[in-house]
Amino acid sequence: MGLLSDPVRRRALARLVLRLNAPLCLLSYVAGIAWFLALAFPPLTQRTYMSENAMGSTMVEEQFVGGERARVFARDFAAYRRKSGALPVAWLERTMRSVGLEVYTQSFSRKLPFPDETHERYMVSGTNVYGILRALRAASTESLVLTVPCGPDSTNSQAVGLLLALAAHFRGQIYWAKDIIFLVTEHDLLGTEAWLEAYHDVNVTGMQSSFLQGRAGAIQAAVALELSSDVVTSLDVIVEGLNGQLPNLDLLNLFQTFCQKGGLLCTLQGKLQPQDWTSLDGPLQGLQTLLLMVLRQASGRSHGPHGLFLRYGVEALTLRGINSFRQYKYDLVAVGKALEGMFRKLNHLLERLHQSFFFYLLPALSRFVSIGLYMPAAGFLLLVLGLKALELWMQLHEAGVGPEEGGGSPGPSSSLLSAQGVGLASLVAPLLISQAVGLALYILPVLGQHVATQHFPVSESEAVVLTLLAIYAAGLALPHNTHRVVTTQAPDRGWMALKLVALIYLALQLGCITLTNFSLGFLLAATMVPAAVLTKPHGPRPLYAALLVLTSPAAVLLGSLFLWRELQEMPLSLAEGWQLFLSALAQGVLEHHTYGALLFPLLALGLYPCWLLFWNVLFWK
Amino acid sequence: MITDVLTAVALYFAIQDFNKVVFKKQKLLLELDQYAPDVSELIQTPKEMHYIPLKVALFYLLNPYTVLSCVAKSTCAINNTLIAFFILATIKGSAFLSAIFLALATYQSLYPITLFVPGLLYLLQRQYIPVKMKSRAFWIFSWEYAMMYMGSLVVIICLSFFLLSSWDFIPAVYGFMYPESPSHPDLCREEVIPGCPAMTPSSRENKEMFEHFSLFFVCVFQINVFFYTIPLAIKLKEHPIFFMFIQIAIISIFKSYPTVGDVALYMAFFPVWNHLYRFLRNIFVLACIIIVCSLLFPVLWHLWIYAGSANSNFFYAITLTFNVGQILGTCYAPSTLLRMNVIQPILQGVHGLWGERKTGSTGQCDRVSVVPGAQIWCSEGSFLGKVLSKCVGSNWVLDLKPWGRERERMEGGK
């Protein structure tokens, strides 16, 4: 406060900000990126540890031996499934009842906004089957969920088999204090979403589903299982959920504990853990895993059924069995034992999982970076925007108010007032137009798909994607449009004011995004900040234009797809990349409408209009 | 909704009246030829004045905070209405109605009791009663006003007693404001609605740790609301309406369960003093703090309540930041007005000085132009220069620059 109110020091500060602005911005940006890259290295990554007392101290002895039984169940399930062509509901009900569960079914149907070409579905209707194992020692106030999503083909039948075998085994035990729900969903995530909405008695995505007959109290934790073979070489654990939400780190620690105990090989993002953290190799490999996690989290998709549970405050993760060419393989008993151990530990919980971290990044399964350590990276990047905005503000202020300009003339401030008025009036048009384009981008593709299919030889989903791209590109023609609307008298002030508004707008959005989904915020900040700060209507305009286009949200998406495949060691060719990009666009829109993923509206309504403002600044005349 | 509209209407009429008074005063001074020629910037023109009440009403109605508290159906809209009517009654000069509305507002949330002093000051000013300890009229009027106020308050409280036939409502309503009281149901920790970001000085965790100091905490946190009334009353004696504005801002910052609706009420007053804003410092920083915080409120609230991943401390931190922004703003506002007060008499004096100097043998003239950034042109050694540097000191961004011959000499030298 003293610093800000004392005029002398204030002036010194202002001068410092003005004179050192460019180096400070550069320094801040480099510091942000460097900080992020350093996250994979030991002082910043810490070893994970179990924080929850109820799960830490006691050891359990796993007694699951039903491997053979699981295989039989799986074979039967696959056979019935092939025969009926859909989920064999009656068989599942019968089998679940025979192992001693309370069985209920739930039917649901959902018309997607446009046909989903990757999953080949449009009008979806299916049935979820779930059985509740009532706890002997408590009054059905809390429950745990083991869920197996079944897709359209007959994958995942081993997971159903293991689920049934585990249910049979758990039924014989007497120590359960929480109800356990064994859930088999049809149409993988759609079924899970329908079940969750019905369980919590809400309807957020326009799903039609029947009322749930049986409930089992508040769900404390959930594990989703995906297994497609009788033997696995490793278990891949997936934590990233809808909108970048993550489960409590303790759940992951729990999984890791049992993997270590059973000698199971487990991977994160499909990558093995580096063993050696002292040399450079370990952290570099960790960095790859970290980048993969950032990209996945930034996508805001639910990468497994667990992601939908997270929205309801249920800690959940997905385990995916991988069967690769590795020599040593584990059978279903090993996986079953790990699951049994996890459930028994979760059974000990006295309150919801809340002790450990909710915001973290994982360079490896046994290492994590907490929020306090990764936030500075984004902070530095946002500081660049703040510094630039401050500089612009001071320039604007000085240009209008400065004594040099005012001189001895009696009314410099009246001209300032009118200039400000013009400045504000000239801002309204670009702001409104870019927001309107954003709104069109959000609404039109889905709304106008039928019109498009009538007039052009394209399918519905192609129509949606192409309309998206068309509106996106049409937005680039915007500067010329606004220019006709706007007549400015103070050319320099006009673009400066617009850039100031755009910078603040961008900084606000990125700040809010970073808080909820660090990966997305950081990714967008790292790409959009330099172009946003550099843009001005003078100087090498084509260069700036190229930079801006390269860092526009869509280009960032395309770039991240390439980076993602590169990191997975499956490089993409350009044509494949383009195809993947198109399907990612369609998926993004679809996920928003079916699950309520926020990435698409965020880009369409928030960041794209903001980016258009910078585009506008660039072509300011 | 209705109460919001009522508030806006009341504010409209109140400010209209207030402006008439200000304008009359200004006109009087203008007729007396007391302003220097260059201050025309600071004199509000009738046209500007005409729009101010409308601006105030629109500021209130279109303020996102008002909309939020209206959507949340917060009771602070009712409180705002009562305060607005109190201001209207005060400005109209009706001591009785003003006392009644103040009593109603106090009855609802206790804190408006601090508005008693500015109300009294304004009424005194209106009746041309000087605020002097020795003056009998001052004491008589204050006594009358206080009696009216206390009387209506007692009547209202007794009415509620007859309605409920028990005194239980007193601890339930007023005790609620003290976070340590047994009637406090930990509302702020568990289910805070967006319209009501609660700032609890001592939350449950702290409660266990700082049990011994609970009384101290209550005192420290509650005293802030009442603490500034007396010093402000002394300093802003001449500007009771401005005082009222500051006091409302202070209430909204320091009350134990602040809501955004309170913020909306005092933000509505901004246009009244919009001629002062060119003197306000750090507008950029302040505006950014307020905007950032307003956006982070829902984000952090979502993380806390829905996602369950962040806890209440995140939200609490952002309410603190928001309050810091507000406090900085309210600290700058009075100092701005006070600076105006220092300048104004000088400006009024300058006119005479100017005329005198013009006829002087040196041909030097002092020229004062008060523009944003405050340039005061006068010769360094001149009387005005000395006065200004003495009065204003380093608090005022003051550039004493040579003027007239000296300036020509200097420029010629260059």
Automatic annotation (TrEMBL), chain A:
GO terms for biological process: attachment of GPI anchor to protein; GPI anchor biosynthetic process. One of its GO terms (cellular component) is mitochondrion. One of its GO terms (molecular function) is GPI anchor binding. InterPro entries: Gaa1 (IPR007246). It is found in: Endoplasmic reticulum membrane. Pathway: Glycolipid biosynthesis; glycosylphosphatidylinositol-anchor biosynthesis. It is a multi-pass membrane protein. Keywords: Disulfide bond, Endoplasmic reticulum, Glycoprotein, GPI-anchor biosynthesis, Membrane, Transmembrane, Transmembrane helix. The chain crosses the membrane at residues 20-41, 357-385, 422-443, 463-479, 500-523, 543-564, 596-619. Heteropentamer. Part of the GPI-anchor transamidase complex, consisting of PIGK, PIGT, PIGS, PIGU and GAA1. Interacts with PIGK. Component of the glycosylphosphatidylinositol-anchor (GPI-anchor) transamidase (GPI-T) complex that catalyzes the formation of the linkage between a proprotein and a GPI-anchor and participates in GPI anchored protein biosynthesis. Binds GPI-anchor. This is GPI-anchor transamidase component GPAA1.
Automatic annotation (TrEMBL), chain B:
It is found in: Endoplasmic reticulum membrane. This is Phosphatidylinositol glycan anchor biosynthesis class U protein isoform X8. Keywords: Endoplasmic reticulum, GPI-anchor biosynthesis, Membrane, Transmembrane, Transmembrane helix. The chain crosses the membrane at residues 82-103, 109-125, 146-167, 213-234, 241-257, 285-307, 313-333. Pathway: Glycolipid biosynthesis; glycosylphosphatidylinositol-anchor biosynthesis. One of its GO terms (cellular component) is GPI-anchor transamidase complex. One of its GO terms (biological process) is GPI anchor biosynthetic process. It comes from Heterocephalus glaber. It is a multi-pass membrane protein. Belongs to the PIGU family.
